[in-house]
Amino acid sequence: MKWEKYLVPASLDEALKTLAEYEGQARVIAGGTDLVPQLKKKERTVKCLVDVSRLAELKGIHHQDGLMRIGAGVTHQQIAASPLLRQTAAALAEGAAAVGSPQIRYMGTIGGNIVNAQPAADTAIPLLALDAEVEIASKEGVRRQPLEDLYVRPGVSKVDASAEIVVAFRFQTLHGKRGSAFARLAKRRSLSLPILNAAAVAILSKDGALFEDLRLALGPVALTPFRARKAEEALRGQPVDGESVVEALVIASEEAQPRTNPLRGSAEYRREMVKVLLGRALERAVAAAKA
Amino acid sequence: MMSKEFSFVGKRVPKLDAPEKVTGQIAYGHDMKLPRMLYGKILRSEYAHAQILNIDTSRAEALPGVRAVITAEDIPDMRIGWARDHPVLKAGKVRSVRDEIAAVAAVDEDTASEALELIKVEYEELPGVFDPEEAMKPGAPVLHGEAPNNIQEKMRQSYYHGDVEKGFSESDVVIEDRLTLPFVTHCCMGTSFILADFSPSGDLTVWSSTQMPFLYQRDLSMVLGIPASKIRVIKAPVGGAFGSKLDMYPFEPICVLLAQRTGCPVRITYTREEEFVVGPTRQPVICDVKSGAKGDGTLTARQVSMILDNGAYSSWGATTPLVMMQTISSLYRVPNVKYDVVVAYTNNPYSGAMRGYGNPQATFVVETHIDMLAHELGMDPMEFRLKNANQSGDVTGQGVKITTCGLTECIEKAAESVTWKAKRAKPDARGVGMASLIHVGGGARIYPSDGCGSTVKVDDFGKVTLISGSTDMGQGADTVMAQIVAEELGVPVANVTVVNADTDITPWDVGAHASRTTFVAGNSARLAAMDAKSQILEGAAENLGEKAEDLDMKEGKIFRKGEPEESIPFEKMVRSKHFRPDGDIVLARGWYEPPTERQDKEFRGNISAAYGFATQAVEVEVDTQTGEVTVLKIAAAHDVGRAINPMAVEGQIHGGVSMGLGYGLYEELVVEEGQVLNPNFADYALPTALDMPEIDTIIVETDDPAGPFGAKGMAEPACIPTAPAIANAVYDAVGVRIKDLPITPEKVLKALNQKKESEEEK
Amino acid sequence: METLTMRLNGEEVTVQVEADALLIDVLRERLGFMGTKEACGEGECGACTVLLDGRPVTSCLVPARKAHGREVLTVEGLASGGELHPLQKAFIEHGAVQCGYCTPGMLMSAKALLDRNLHPTDEEIREAISGNLCRCTGYVKIVEAIKAASAG
Ligand SMILES: Cc1cc2nc3c(=O)[nH]c(=O)nc-3n(C[C@H](O)[C@H](O)[C@H](O)COP(=O)(O)OP(=O)(O)OC[C@H]3O[C@@H](n4cnc5c(N)ncnc54)[C@H](O)[C@@H]3O)c2cc1C
Ligand code: FES
Ligand code: FES
């Protein structure tokens, strides 16, 4: 017996109530692409699953006043196919397009990808670079929290999926002299977890010559999705091409702490690749910002 | 070559079983159920090497729904495998994590799994040995008492022809290297299965995924002590085999024992994890190779010394050196060859037969060195290959009699397809590489008989049934057999049904291995069809008052030779032969035994009636920043004798190439301290549709006189030269030589960095 | 036990299922639709692909209750009125089937593609079946067959 009850609430309120009734013995399920394998392998046990994948409150990709709001129940497929996101948050659309396989993208949601808390989750890295904020609903109401503060360690986030529900992600859209991009290295072109992934957001000066600001994210180079803050610092106010970029990439590769994984590559290789992938993401982000 | 006029040979006939497969109607072993059927599951070792102190099955036995729990204590000491070194259930000691300790039969799979969790085993862990070189050193942990140093005498072999020392001394260039090859595995999409059922009178029927029903019947009988005459083996539809189902493994007698104990049919199907960990692998190889050539490009000598990781027990893996030997002795003309091999036990999962049977490893070694020699000599690697290519009529130093050989044409056509001359040795990060192969194409005599029997029966309505000893594993053998019978007999393919893989019904055959089915079973079917035809024509001649030799039959019609306009439907003649005083039915037979010999003690002899050749040329692009290799195109030119079904031949080539590409770039079963770290499709990376490049299949026909309509075996070869061709292309692209598969980005980048460093030093 | 009502291959079906049943088990074990294959059970091979409201999903990861009130299409539902689906015909004629174990899942992924894109490029076809592993064919003839079944 993997679980004893499977409930499909009709509203967010009902879902929260149901979770409360089970007092920690129930858990949110969205696409199930992470949770079902974990339950099958008995890495987790629950009494009841509360399916949020069809809640209207968790749907939709909306844009208002420079703010993007993506429901936590939106699937990777929907993100990858959204012209709006392709245009204003390309890194995220590219990250979502890289997840698993078509089937997994049709099933898996962005909310599940974040709460599952893998340090190289393919939407977490771009969302981190986009400086996203998370809306979390609980019995007590809705709270907002920067995405970055959500992580504890691999597989563990601060969202208690037995009581709380992530409703949406919000971030500033990239318009004007802003651009973003995502880069990824994997064993093969489909169905494989990243050896390394990287996302960059570039915010350029009016003439497009300098980095007014930038945000760089990487995985898996730490216990949680990682912001390369020292590299960002080094580049802020610097020209978009030339030595400073090369130096910043070296800094990023030094602040990153990748580990050796017998299946996905050595620490040294991954460290080396930080420079390459981040460099590529940054270059494309700059090109997008200039366009 | 003159193209003969055929009605069905050479035609793209769709697979006979395809309609059943596209509708989901076909029942694979996994879909089969019998009334009262129980589900079997096996408890395996937690340790790679350990003493079993105690096994407590009492809680499992008490679980409702459990019908039987067995351990080694409950059965006689049974040993299986090529070296009879493999106990079916382990007592005393476990030697790898795949080891079977106990088995359960229960009413459903969940109950069986739960029961396994309730079995308590106490172990005392023993030091293990996981590297075959370490295993042979004095003082290494010993796996089998009868094999000190972890080697059995018959697992050490040496071959030579000519004199390599002399050869090297006459060479202008000599190179030496160490190459290593990893564990890889078949990854059949359908896992292994068996369903065993006893009749009330004690007759055993098994539905199995085996590739060799008759040897399997013999093996089951031997290990279980049940007379073979009371065992019926039916090969059920399988989801791929690729050699993995060539042996009998412990789960199979275990399943029969569970059926015996419970009096119920029992089915065992492997989980994906079991398929990865428990199923056999291709042998990892550590290889030292030395090659020499003269300044003009003539090969002089080749010396190869290999150490194979056998794993903890022996399956056919231990015999793959026999196939490796053929490539080492006979791929390209080499006057002096020496080959030494030793197969050592380790506490790793064990190795078995896998598509190519040692040849992918041997070809990687030989073709890497051929390429390196060419560069050393400053020759175009293609020209170097052409210069040393085998030719029709050659008898190699090992006694391999090459009757037909399309190697030169394969090299030329593959090169042309990738515009070799234009693309080679260019300064960009793109490159081309090639590799060739030799493989048995007319059976392989490794058993006293390499034959196959067939029966052809023609009924009163013109339905032709071929009852063939052959085994179709999804490769399409049935369709090819039907085409051969239709062609020879002169009836439409649609009239022909093929029945096979049931030891109660079909005549004997040694099994689906060594790319032998089209050749051996095809010849056998053809003989039976010829017999049927003469029976029909004789009947018709009597009926019509003609001479049989003046009549012929085509597309189901009988006519006077040269006068096809005036004809009679053949089924009418079959009926008239049947329904008359002293009538007879049409029931024909064919037995084909290839004209080959077993090797002598020095491993010389012509074990196959024909040999297949091929060359694959690939174009790659290397990302010099990440080390990623992208294969842009693969041209695969294969000498198949004749393509009886070009669509099936292409299908074999495409599938083989993707397996070879996986071997070259992605695949490795990562085994650390005897534990398999990636027993799943996420971490063991098969190529996906997005990873496959354009494949140009080039069929070279050499019309082999011994083959059915000229055909030679071709199924294994497709996966053999791909990996070395890719490695050679990577060298052409960026000048680094990867001597250790798979060619991961990390290895390429490391090599590129080393190359840069050494260039800077200069 | 929970009640599951779905439109399976065009017909309404109601079954009682264990709360933790997965869609693949309901299809295969409860309803006898054995065409859907399980080759990994972890979402990593696509053999178990079915269409849920027209979208390709790996049924080995889908809790059966997710199908409640929805449409499920399996390989058994592709042919209609005794006529094979054009994809099925193309798979047969182009030699896209060898052992056939991946075939049902491939067909479903291909159908999902053609339902939203009548004129896929080769690259789009490869992309659409990139979650379906095949060990026999190297995918070449599968891509050819899907192309042939598309509107060109
Ligand atoms: C074959 C395969 C390949 C994959 N490849 C990739 C890949 O390449 N890259 C990648 O990043 N991931 C990959 N994944 C992982 C997975 O698909 C993603 O993480 C996916 O986004 C998870 O979303 P889901 O909706 O399926 O989550 P679920 O499995 O439903 O849930 C995951 C976790 O999040 C919780 N949760 C879900 N939604 C909410 C919510 N709204 N509020 C609170 N808690 C919630 C659940 O309780 C659970 O703990 C792969 C998975 C598979 C099976
Ligand atoms: S069986 Fe479901 S994806 Fe493999
Ligand atoms: S046809 Fe065998 S796995 Fe695809």
Number of domains of chain A: 3
> Which structural class should the secondary elements of chain B be placed in?
alpha+beta
Radius of gyration of chain B: 27 Å
Name the quaternary structure.
heterotrimer
Q: In which order are the strands of the major sheet of chain A placed? A: 4-5-10-6-7
Low-confidence stretches of chain B: none
CATH class of the largest domain in chain A: Alpha Beta
Q: Gap between N and C termini of chain A, in Å? A: 55 Å
Q: How many helices of chain B?
A: 19
| Main pleated sheet of chain B | 7 strands, mixed
Number of strands of chain A: 14
Tally of domains of chain B: 3
**Rg of chain A (CA only):** 19 Å
In the sheet with the most strands of chain B, the strands line up as: 3-7-1-14-11-12-13
Helix residue percentage of chain B? 25-40%
Look at the structure and give the mean pLDDT of chain B.
96
Number of strands of chain B: 30
Total of helices of chain A: 11
Comma- or semicolon-separated keywords:
heterotrimer; A: 291 residues; alpha+beta; Uridine Diphospho-n-acetylenolpyruvylglucosamine Reductase, domain 2; Uridine Diphospho-n-acetylenolpyruvylglucosamine Reductase, domain 3; Enolase-like, domain 1; five-stranded antiparallel beta sheet; four-stranded antiparallel beta sheet; 11 helices; 14 strands; 34% helix; globular; B: 762 residues; Aldehyde Oxidoreductase, domain 4; Aldehyde Oxidoreductase, domain 3; 3 domains; seven-stranded mixed beta sheet; five-stranded mixed beta sheet; 28% helix; binds flavin-adenine dinucleotide; binds FE2/S2 (inorganic) cluster
